[in-house]
Design a protein that fits this description.
The chain is α/β, with parallel strands linked by helices and 604 residues long. The protein is built from 21 helices and 17 strands. It is elongated and about 170 Å long.
């Protein structure tokens, strides 16, 4: 297979070949004959020989085979693309104890991989089913995807995009082809390289460390599957017969899967929620009733389902869920759902008869987007009279925004879980699930992540009622307010770790919110200054009042002293001694007046 010396590489443990040898040791394969198909220069011959295996290399490269023989190993010429591959292998090695077959960096050089894998399966069935270990480059590596997103696809002499590769593999394609050809994977030790040979040029905006684009693409790729940084798949397989049977007919796929979440503690509201679903004008739906309890499902739940007409009851699957928090039943429901879109409903909420139809219209108008309708709010509380388990405490209120605004949603959730439906294609492509570590607001966090990718299409129609409990049973009261705020901060912190993709018109919205925020800051400053001035004036007023009070007190004291003096004066004047000396005092008074008059006359 490998006819050019460019493939002559030395063995290294930190390589796909090292991973292959590790698999041999991990599987504890008993030493025996090793057939290395497409062996090239036989880089693994010595390590396998050290483990006690008898190594045989098979290839069409005569120079590489001669080199093997000089090193003391058997080298046999074999064309892996021969139509007689199975017969050739069986003829050559029947009766030999073949313990292991290697196929390292080979499958990507085969044009018709399905036929080749079928022939190889027949050969190994005839050789008593030895273990097959292969390695294949991963064309789904993050480096390749990031560059291809910007129109760049660089073939190279060797590596992920070796210019002799004629078949390219992602993990999904490799698994599908091996499985359909009769191979059962038994182990894996993939070779990981965070920066592959395709990580060039370093300044490429989709690759350069720290650029928002690279961060965003990396976040998407990392969440899609675990193989973003796998350089080569290194897998071990066992062969098993494949019955060529006609695949069973697949049941029709419903438009909508509805995941209903319940703890089984509210049978009345659950029955009402199911009644809403049974009354849909568009009944192309399936219902996954997720009963989240610590034990077996209460028979009463199944009784509620069976109370409906069979045409609806047959589409309701009751699924018990144990353990985990509020998000666990949602994720289990996602794994069991088959609809093209998935919607969610808690057992105490209600939907209108055109809930499904509204989602279908939105999906038809905006394929691939999350579809959102308007939700009203209503308060209820428990009661135990008139045969009812709850009573309504408010009217239907427009508490939530009529249209979706991602920027606004970072401040507060405006979309209860019953208000939106998500496309299954998004769930599968992004491997998107609810965060099970969150005790509350798991739907808000899910929507913030999902809506960045798909966007949201608003139907503008009121189709659901979110009901909040005015009691300790409601989630708002069951969880302390500090926990709510802590969870909110942790969600925003997690979102801060990667760039955010915003929909169109977000720049204007952000500018508007920023302007409003600046105005709030300005008004806050004005209010703070005004408050300070009020406090200063209050202090001055208090000081002035204190001074006035002191002056008034002193004036009052002075007035009291004057009054006292006046009273004493009157008392003295009215005393007997004063009356007795009155003529003498008058005579002295007249004498002083005559004396002053004489002085005035002399002065003239």
């Amino acid at each position: 297979m490998n006819q050019e010396p460019r493939y002559r590489t030395n063995f290294a443990w930190e390589s796909p070949y090292g991973c292959a040898i590790d698999l041999v040791k991990d599987l504890a394969i008993a030493p025996g004959l090793v057939l290395d198909l497409g062996c090239g220069w036989g880089s693994v011959a010595e390590p396998l020989s050290d483990l006690g295996f008898k190594y045989v290399g098979l290839d069409v490269d005569d120079e590489a085979l001669d080199d093997l023989r000089r090193r003391g190993f058997d080298g046999i010429r074999l064309d892996l693309q021969s139509e007689n591959l199975a017969d050739d292998l069986i003829d050559k090695f029947t009766g030999s104890k073949v313990a292991l077959v290697l196929m390292l960096d080979v499958l990507e050089h085969i044009p018709d991989t399905r036929s080749f894998l079928g022939s190889l399966q027949a050969a190994l069935l005839g050789l008593d089913r030895p273990v097959l270990i292969l390695s294949v480059p991963n064309v789904g590596h993050a480096d390749l995807g990031a560059k291809l997103a910007l129109g760049r696809f660089d073939y190279t002499p060797t590596g992920l995009l070796d210019d002799t590769h004629v078949s390219l593999f992602t993990e999904r394609r490799l698994s599908e082809q091996l499985s359909s050809a009769g191979w059962l994977q038994v182990a894996a030790k993939d070779f990981v390289l965070n920066q592959s040979d395709q990580h060039f040029p370093e300044c490429h905006p989709a690759l350069a460390y720290g650029t928002p684009l690279a961060g965003f693409l990396s976040e998407l790729r990392d969440n899609a599957d675990p193989y973003a940084h796998v350089n080569q798949f290194v897998r071990a397989y066992l062969v098993h017969p494949v019955e060529r049977m006609r695949p069973p007919a697949k049941p029709p796929v419903p438009f909508l899967s509805v995941i209903v979440r319940t703890t089984g503690q509210r049978p009345q509201t659950l029955a009402e929620a199911l009644t809403c679903l049974a009354a849909q004008s568009d009944d192309d739906l399936e219902v996954k009733l997720m009963v989240h309890t610590g034990g077996a499902v209460d028979p009463g739940i199944q009784s509620i389902v069976e109370s409906f007409h069979p045409t609806f009851a047959c589409r309701v699957e009751v699924i018990p869920v144990k353990g985990g928090g509020r998000a666990r039943p949602l994720n289990v429901g996602l794994a069991r759902s088959t609809g093209r879109y998935v919607a969610f409903l808690d057992d105490d909420d209600l939907v209108t008869g055109d809930w499904v139809k509204s989602f279908r219209r939105g999906a038809g108008a905006s394929p691939g987007k999350i579809v959102r309708s308007i939700t009203l709010n209503q308060a209820i509380r428990p009661c135990d009279h008139s045969g009812m388990t709850y009573e309504v405490c408010s009217g239907l209120n427009h508490s939530y925004a009529p249209t979706f605004d991602l920027v606004q949603h970072f401040f507060a959730n405006q979309s209860p879980i019953c208000s939106f439906a998500v496309p299954r294609g998004m769930l599968n492509a992004l491997n998107l699930r609810f965060n099970e570590s969150l005790p509350v607001t798991e739907d808000w966090e899910f929507l913030l992540r999902a809506s960045q990718i798909t966007g949201v299409a608003d139907t503008g129609e009121v189709t659901s009622v979110y009901r909040g409990w005015l009691s300790e049973d409601g989630s708002t009261n069951l969880v302390d307010s500090s926990v709510w705020e802590g969870v909110r901060r942790s969600i925003l912190h997690e979102l801060d770790q990667a760039p955010i993709l915003l929909p169109g018109e977000s720049a204007s919205r952000i500018a508007s919110y920023a302007a409003a925020s600046c105005r709030v800051i300005e008004l806050t400053s004005i209010l703070a200054g005004t408050q300070e001035e009020i406090e200063r004036l209050s202090i001055a007023l208090r000081d002035s009042e204190a001074s006035r009070a002191l002056a008034e007190a002193r004036a009052k004291q002075t007035e009291e002293r004057l009054q006292e003096a006046y009273r004493e004066k009157q008392a003295v004047e009215q005393s007997l001694s004063m009356r007795a000396t009155l003529p003498i005092r008058r005579l002295l008074h007249y004498a002083r007046r005559i004396k002053r008059a004489a002085h005035r006359l002399n002065g003239r």
